[in-house]
Amino acid sequence: MWKQTALAFCMIATAISAVAQTRLNPDISVVGDFEMFSHNDTSRAWERNRLNLSSPGAELFVTGYLNPYVRASGDISWHGEEKANIEELYIVVLRGLPLGMNIRAGQQLLEFGRLNPVHDHAWSFIERPLPHVAFFGDEGANDVAVRASVLLPTGEAYTELMGGVLKGDVLLGDKQNELIDADGQPIRPELGALGRLTTSLAVADAAELALGASVINAVYDVPDSSTQLRAWVGGIDFKYKYKPSRYTTLQVEGEGLVRSDEAPDGGDRITSYGAYSYIDYRFQQRYNIGGIM
What we know:
With 293 residues, the protein is mainly beta.
């Protein structure tokens, strides 16, 4: 796995560098992540009511233009004791397409809601919200996808419509490594789909409001080679941002989610709900405080 990861990442870095020699060098960055935490969760008694130090993690980012129309990005992550993992590896066609459309293709954090596309080191909190873990797993909604987006003419509001085709692993989690038929051959899940509509507008001189709705349809289980069970996941989200000065920002975000699974026995669908919201207050250039519920 490590050799495949290194090879894939070297390929995109080499491609970017080859073009960049006559233009600009690619942007390369490494982000480290180390946490200290405590809690009173009785289900994790080994950490309860004590100071805990997490195993450090790191992410290596490489991004740059292949030509004036196409940008490539890659991200390799290490978290705790895990081996290197390709978190994202994709290209974006930014211009030159009809209707001002852009296309993103490759392994990516899917643009479902506002939280999922954001890497965890950039969050204002430590752990992924429980609804996201329950619906998408610990790593969030990540899949190989081809996604197209276009801006809609909505006056002063910035409105974007997205749609995409997924490889189909996004809701399978660890099951994707166990899909084997009676002959020992791997079973490929059927393709999935992604859609998102988002809009934002200024509501005051220093305030912005953004609203969005997202949907995913994909296989979540394969009981046998002739049956593939699908699920719908839908979400609505909002963001309010107030920025009266350069280093002062108050931001409130929230998301409500619903998931509807096909029942294995052909009965009524299994429906689950979840929601979270958080507030973040930045009071200096490098300091902020917040909370999530």
